[in-house]
Write a structure and sequence with these properties.
This protein is an alpha/beta fold. The protein has one domain (8-218): Rossmann fold. Helix content is 37%, strand content 12%. It has 6 helices and 5 strands. The protein has helices at 37-45, 75-86, 109-125, 150-155, 159-177, 200-218; strands at 8-14, 49-55, 91-95, 136-140, 180-182. Strands 2-1-3-4-5 form a 5-stranded parallel beta sheet, with helices on both faces. Helix 3 (109-125) links the parallel strand 3 and strand 4 (136-140). Helix 1 (37-45) packs across helix 6, helix 2 packs parallel to helix 3 (109-125) and helix 3 (109-125) packs parallel to helix 5 (159-177). The longest helix has 19 residues, at 159-177. The radius of gyration is 16 Å and the shape is globular. The protein starts with 7 loop residues before the first strand and ends with a helix. The model has no long low-confidence stretch (mean pLDDT 83).
Length: 219
């Protein structure tokens, strides 16, 4: 929590790559706040900004996970609650889509982009308070999984191709919706421990790239 009442409030919304455990530890160990993207972004931006970390392992754009041990992963269902609980917001950063590329979901990038569009519309049109103005929105393309190795090979058949397709799909969506867009996939790589999640070094790289976007908005 940032007690600066004038701080810009930024919601980092995503899946396990927004806040995650160390890939090489098989998810037993979790990175400390300073080594996760939201915490690193908070440190770089300073006290004039408040970064709100909102993540859920295996979160999708709008699909229910078929596994009963992963309930409430459908963001389209939970988004209004999340928005209301964190109002007011100045910026919402979305990095979703990795879970959608799992083989069990049986969808491709154009469908993920279609439902991401619905999420963006929900953010734009959400009005719980008369004085509330919609936050700016930044879409971040998720890191590209490598389906040839580790857990990626068992869960993400065709996942690499789907992730690559999201780059252009999200770019077009951002242009059509007149929102912000960031493709970090050349600089930010998945960890070789599981080939799905990013390590602390890449969390910091991603935080620095987002920092440049944020500073450009509020300069």
């Amino acid at each position: 929590m940032n007690t600066n009442d004038k701080a810009k409030r930024i919601l980092c919304y995503g899946d396990s790559n927004t806040r995650w455990r160390v890939p090489s530890s098989m998810w037993i160990d979790r990175y400390p706040a300073t080594k996760r993207r939201p915490g690193a972004l908070q440190n770089i931006l300073g006290n004039d900004y408040e970064i709100i970390e909102e993540w859920l392992w295996a979160r999708t754009t709008m699909f229910d996970d078929p596994r009963p041990e992963f309930p409430e992963r459908n963001w389209l269902k939970t988004l209004p609650i999340i928005l209301e609980s964190h109002l007011p917001l100045d910026l919402v950063i979305l990095m979703l889509g990795t879970t959608d590329t799992k083989e069990m979901m049986n969808i491709w990038s154009e469908t993920t982009a279609k439902w991401m569009h619905q999420l963006i519309q929900t953010i734009k049109n959400y009005r719980i308070l008369k004085w509330y103005s919609s936050p700016k929105i930044l879409i971040v393309v998720p890191p590209t999984v490598n389906e040839q190795w580790s857990i990626a090979s068992s869960l993400f058949k065709w996942g690499t191709e789907k992730c690559i397709e999201l780059i252009k799909a999200y770019q077009k969506l951002a242009e059509d919706e007149n929102i912000l867009y960031l493709d970090p996939t050349k600089e930010v790589q998945v960890d070789r421990g599981d080939w799905v999640h990013i390590d602390s070094e890449n969390h910091l790289k991603l935080a620095k790239l987002i920092y440049e976007v944020v500073i450009d908005i509020y300069k």
